């Protein structure tokens, strides 16, 4: 890792030698003292270096790249000047808002390019060459492949926010399309809360010198975050969750809770269940239309709804300062995902609580998380007698919600996108679906055959064991008769 710049020389935003209007905007937001990642990265970015920055959630990573980009933009204003890529739509909108606030005095023009919004309107905005483009890889790749009304050949900055997720393999095809349209001469900035092998490889193969800053603190979660686990049997997680929310409400009537679960369907089911049992909530997952996603986040941020149930689409970058508690309805398989989830609370010096619902099957996952964060989670005691009282109500409510959900076209959007992708690849969706059905049918046949074979082997072994037992008994009987005679 490169040696850090001297942090002793920088104590306020004035010390970065940014334009006066940028410093004024920072002060108007109540920002007086820069964070360590800002102190170390901003001078190097202003000096023209490529940069990889890693620090815990809530440490000011967005401003670490936004401030130097705006400084360079006002020195040589043109569009498109900078491209910022993020893995989720909500994070893209949030970054764009921060650029808006800081860049207001210079009449900053920016464009958010995400799915769920009219492509024609986005194309028109892009054709006007905005200064900053904030995008998710999928939608930007769609624009680049379908129209030529804008160009990325002159951008000065490329930013990958939540770079570990972007470079994790899920976006490889889209990033290939985007990178083919970028100039060779540019500054590349990568920011994340967790350093992965992918980021280390980027540094190793970089064409020019890369400055890398990584927070030295061994603890990857903030000190003011209290972290607990609650033991529960696998089949009654929802009842334990309702009881935990009831306990939290007794202590903090107006506090906000963010609940993470694993799949879109489970997220929707949990949302329907909690609302039916009297816990007003909103949900956020990738199967929702963009308008509903924005509305759900707005209701949660404004405290109209104090419970947000979400998939990992809400685990990265979202800054909702009022969140007092994070609940993991399922334990993430990767410790870094746990770090991102619990990072939604205890932000900007505030306190917070994280509770993970743990079944016997999750013990190894919890141990891996404790090793990664170097903290032992404390047990959160839940009264089993109180859970038993609500168990029937919660279970019946969830079954009814599941029946209602099955009656809707919940996976319609997913299936439509799958068909669209197949058509773009020149394949017939109906033929592919027929092949998949045949493949599943053959797999089921093989499994049945395997089970029958196992049953026959087991039965043969049992018959042999019984016969051996009978033979042994007859020999013992014969021995007893001989002894008596």
From TrEMBL:
PROSITE patterns: DEAD_ATP_HELICASE (PS00039), HELICASE_ATP_BIND_1 (PS51192), HELICASE_CTER (PS51194), Q_MOTIF (PS51195)
Motif (Q motif): 11-39
Extent of the signal sequence: none
Alphabetical UniProt keywords: ATP-binding, Helicase, Hydrolase, Nucleotide-binding
CC annotations in GO: cytosol
Ranges for region Disordered: 424-485
Molecular function terms from GO: ATP binding; hydrolase activity; nucleic acid binding; RNA helicase activity
Domain Helicase C-terminal span(s) in chain numbering: 243-388
Ranges of residues in domain Helicase ATP-binding: 42-213
Protein name (record): RNA helicase
Species of provenance: Ladona fulva (Scarce chaser dragonfly)
């Amino acid at each position: 890792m490169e040696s850090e710049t001297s942090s002793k020389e920088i104590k306020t935003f004035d010390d970065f030698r940014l334009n006066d209007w940028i410093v004024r905007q920072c002060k108007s937001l109540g920002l007086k003292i820069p964070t360590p990642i800002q102190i170390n990265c901003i001078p190097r970015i202003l000096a023209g270096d490529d940069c990889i920055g890693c620090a815990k959630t809530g440490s000011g990573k967005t401003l670490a790249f936004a401030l130097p980009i705006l400084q360079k933009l006002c020195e040589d204003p043109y569009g498109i000047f900078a491209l910022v890529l993020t893995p989720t739509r909500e994070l893209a909108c949030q970054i764009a808002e921060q650029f808006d606030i800081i860049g207001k005095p210079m009449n900053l023009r920016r464009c958010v390019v995400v799915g769920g919004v009219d492509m024609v309107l986005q194309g028109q905005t892009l054709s006007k060459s905005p200064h900053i483009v904030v995008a998710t890889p999928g939608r930007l790749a769609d624009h680049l492949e379908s129209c030529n009304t804008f160009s990325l050949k002159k951008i000065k900055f490329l930013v990958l926010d939540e770079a570990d997720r972007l470079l994790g393999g899920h976006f490889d095809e889209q990033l290939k399309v985007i990178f083919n349209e970028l100039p060779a001469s540019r500054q590349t900035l990568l920011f994340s809360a967790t350093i992965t092998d992918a980021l280390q490889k980027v540094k190793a193969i970089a064409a020019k010198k890369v400055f890398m800053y990584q927070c030295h603190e061994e603890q990857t979660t903030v000190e003011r975050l209290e972290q607990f686990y609650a033991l529960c049997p696998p089949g009654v997680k929802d009842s334990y969750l309702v009881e935990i929310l009831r306990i939290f409400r007794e202590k903090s009537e107006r506090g906000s809770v963010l609940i993470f679960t694993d799949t879109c369907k489970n997220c929707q089911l949990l949302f329907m269940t909690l609302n039916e049992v009297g816990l007003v909530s909103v949900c956020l997952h990738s199967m929702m239309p963009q308008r509903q996603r924005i509305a759900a986040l707005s209701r949660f941020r404004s405290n109209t709804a104090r419970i947000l149930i979400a998939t990992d689409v809400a685990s990265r970058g979202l800054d909702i300062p009022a969140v007092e508690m994070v609940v993991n309805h399922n334990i993430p398989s990767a410790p870094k995902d746990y770090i991102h989830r619990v990072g939604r609370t205890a932000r900007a010096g505030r306190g917070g609580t994280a509770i993970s619902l743990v079944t016997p099957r999750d013990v190894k996952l919890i141990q891996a998380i404790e090793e990664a964060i170097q903290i032992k989670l404390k047990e959160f005691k839940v009264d089993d007698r109180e859970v038993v009282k609500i168990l029937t109500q919660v279970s019946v409510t969830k079954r009814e919600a599941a029946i209602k959900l099955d009656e809707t076209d919940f996976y319609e959007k997913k299936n439509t996108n799958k068909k669209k992708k197949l058509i773009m690849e020149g394949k017939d969706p109906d033929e592919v679906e027929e092949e998949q059905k045949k493949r599943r049918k053959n797999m089921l046949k093989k499994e049945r055959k395997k089970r029958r074979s196992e049953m026959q082997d087991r039965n043969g072994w049992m018959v042999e064991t019984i016969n051996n037992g009978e033979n042994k008994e007859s020999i013992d009987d014969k021995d007893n008769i001989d002894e008596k005679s």
